[in-house]
Amino acid sequence: MDDTKPKVVALIVAHPDDETLWAGGTILSHPSWKWFIITLTRKSDEERAGKFYKVLKILGAKGTMGDLDDGPEQKPLKDRDLAKTILELLPPVNYDLIISHHPLGEYTRHLRHEETAKAVISLWNSGKITTKELWTFAYEDGGKQYLPRAVKTDTLFEVLPEKTWEKKYRLITETYGFNNNSWEAETTPKEEAFRKYTNSADAMHWTTKGRKL
Fold first, then answer.
1. SS3 at position 202
2. For residues 106 and 148, is the Cβ–Cβ distance under 8 A?
């Protein structure tokens, strides 16, 4: 992840704060990259939306929000609704890199993360979005045995410099306003990892897997 050549990058996540939790250090470490960040939910949540746009400004990124259902019931979303929302929000650009969730998520478990990943991969596979590379977040929690941690093997893995992590942590606690004892604050990884794909067929392999509710 030490490539300093400017890239045109889209980051597609389910919720405002996912971009910071799972990739905030990477964004901060590449200020020359042109970042466009999309969250598929919470547009109608005025407080959360306001915080998201403040975070974008601090990150030096552009972005926008969708308003897909994110109620506590977590009823499955329709594939066509996810695809439609992503295509409406994502500028039609040939990207150097798109980053999103992994189809198995970052922890056990959040359906919206998994749905977002599968939608992004399917759109890439069908040619409706174009990118040279796709990176998916690479974290796991041992089946709820511990807080999410970066996967070190077979991934792009980086230990964040202390100052970078501190800025990332402040985004979670001060800008988003999560309490220091919150799950989000305690989770905020000091290490970030991604699985890299250069062809959609390899990524599609993961969309047929899944965790049972």
1. helix
2. yes
pLDDT of res. 3:
57
pTM over the 0.85 mark: yes
Instruction: Give yes or no for a contact between 55 and 175, defined as CB atoms under 8 angstroms apart.
Output: yes
Name beta bridge partners: 197.
Answer: 134
Q: Which domains does the chain have, with CATH numbers?
A: 8-207 (3.40.50.10320)
Lowest-confidence range among 2-11, 145-154, 162-171, 174-183?
Answer: 2-11
What are the φ and ψ backbone dihedral angles of 110, each rounded to 5 degrees? -135, 110
Residue 152 token pair:
């070190």
Judge contact between 63 and 36, C-beta under 8 A: yes
- CA 30, CA 7: separation in Å to the nearest integer? 9
Confidence at residue 212, expressed as pLDDT on a 0 to 100 scale: 43
In 3D, which of 4, 26, 24, 7 has the Cα closest to residue 16?
24
Question: How far is residue 206 CA from its own chain's centroid?
Answer: 17
The answer to whether residues 62 and 35 touch, using CB atoms and an 8 Å cutoff, is yes
Q: In what order do the strands lie in the sheet containing 130-137?
A: 62-68, 34-41, 8-13, 94-100, 130-137, 191-197, 156-159
Q: Are the C-beta atoms of residues 94 and 130 closer than 8 Å to each other? A: yes
